[in-house]
């Protein structure tokens, strides 16, 4: 499955006004983005092998952050922001989410994915892989 297909679900849910729909829209937007980048890393040959279910999101975000590639570093920052919004939607039930919150999260995730696809080159992918691989080894993730 292409993880960006989760954006279709997020798009459908963001049109509703009920909290469960809006919060789930936020979550699907985040998961579309984090899984897109996980698959990008995996396609480059970088996958978390040790305890794959532990720190899986941190693995993706940090590999991008320490990649030395501007687009990847920027992506890591946006993913961290999206992760915080998703955690608020999942765990902070006292917070009220609006359609604007769901729309904003959807647009950010969609733009993040599209910008990365457009700006990455084979040369940048090599740099990303080499630097991220070194970081992942240092963290004992692979």
Write down the CATH topology: Four Helix Bundle (Hemerythrin (Met), subunit A)
CATH class: Mainly Alpha
Q: How many structural domains in the coordinates? A: 1
- Derived structural class: mainly alpha
Compressed to H and E, one letter per element, the order equals HHHHHH
Distance linking N and C termini = 24 Å
Helix content: over 70%
* Largest sheet descriptor: none
Mean pLDDT: 95
Computed over alpha carbons, the radius of gyration is 15 Å
Written account of the structure:
With 142 residues, this protein is an all-alpha fold. The chain has a single domain (3-138), classed as Four Helix Bundle (Hemerythrin (Met), subunit A), CATH 1.20.120. Helices cover 73% and strands 0% of the residues. It has six helices and no strands. It has helices at 6-13, 19-44, 56-65, 70-91, 99-119, 122-138. α1 packs antiparallel against α5 (99-119), α3 (56-65) crosses α6 and α4 (70-91) packs antiparallel against α5 (99-119). It starts with 5 loop residues before the first helix and ends with a helix.
In short:
The chain is 73% helix and 0% strand.
What labels describe this entry?
142 residues, mainly alpha, Four Helix Bundle (Hemerythrin (Met), subunit A), 6 helices, globular
Walk me through the topology:
Layout: H1 6-13, H2 19-44, H3 56-65, H4 70-91, H5 99-119, H6 122-138
Helix pairs in contact: 1-2, 1-5, 2-3, 2-4, 2-5, 3-4, 3-6, 4-5
